[in-house]
Request: fold
Amino acid sequence: MRVRGFLRVLCAAAISLLAFSRAGAAQPLGWAHPYVMVVNHANGRAYRAWNNKRPGRYATNSPTGLSPSVIKSVYNFPTSPTAGAGKTIAIVDAYDDPTAEQDLNVFSSQYGLPPCTTANGCFKKVDQTGGTHYPRKNAGWALEISLDIQWAHALAPGARILLVEANSNRFADLLAAEDYAKAHAEYVSNSWGGSEFSGESAYDYHFSQPGVSFFVSSGDNGAPAEYPSSSPNVISVGGTSLHFDSSGNFLGETGWSGSGGGCSQYEAATSAQRSFGEYTQVNCRGQRATPDVALDADPASGVSVYDSTRYQGQSGWFTVGGTSASAPMWAAISADSGTVVDSAHVYSEPSSQFRDITSGNNGFPCLVGYDLVTGRGSALGAP
Reply:
């Protein structure tokens, strides 16, 4: 089934449980969508990757979005070409991107990054069970995949990249891909999700593995919280906006209006989040609060992505935003540190590890300290 704009309504209105034998558990019946937004260079507006309209010119022949060097400078991220060495970052997405590897290497060449190929052992693509029976191509998800793998490599150029392609955007397929990913990587990034649903906590085990850190985009529609971002087993990654002057000098960072966040309807907060002093100011009353952290996601300060799988008839360089960007970047900088980043880690880190975002809103306001727009804030250096 193709990814279309009505899926949020479908997920909200029609998610139910399909009986499935796995230690008595059930699998969710429904679809997830990617959290990627593409800037139209003709009018500066951003559109979701599954939008079927043709509003103008998306792609360009050269990069127009932010570069890895700019992102590293803004956040004081590691600049070593071996950052992340010895670690594997798994990217879980739906459908096939047939040009994923070649596009990654165009991106790497453009920005002076080390090559990341199947031949040198840096890149590997598998289906949801680890094989090579790849699913059918989907242009919107291919752009999502390009974003995810390129920016994971940009910020952790020494790490291996494992792309796990689910058969479809059904939750059941994506969760099967998650199970493969967590068995073969230390860091797993997910830039997809859907509306919360009753019984979602039964699937939280898919995001649990000793020694593995899980990152999930918080969403691009503001409040409320979404799943699996709301799972207490993951680090929910929200979005910010970066601001520059006409000369390209960094001016500051605010909360992005599209950053997903809110109090979960069905998931309880972890003990680490509940005991964090600033948690009480968002009034979640013991429920899971999202996001935990944030990073650049506003399409207006979007990043450069190369995609030769034609999207709405176009290919080349795209400027892309959404929490699809912030989640793989958080996975990458965590790989740089080599640290297991979970709820206990995030809520025990000193405030100096974060840039507190106090301006902006997504339906909830940014606050001094923890809030439902940017969590504890954006990262300053590797966590």
Observations:
- The chain is about 20% helix and 25% strand.
- Residues 135 and 342 are 31 Å apart (CA to CA).
- The longest helix spans residues 139-155.
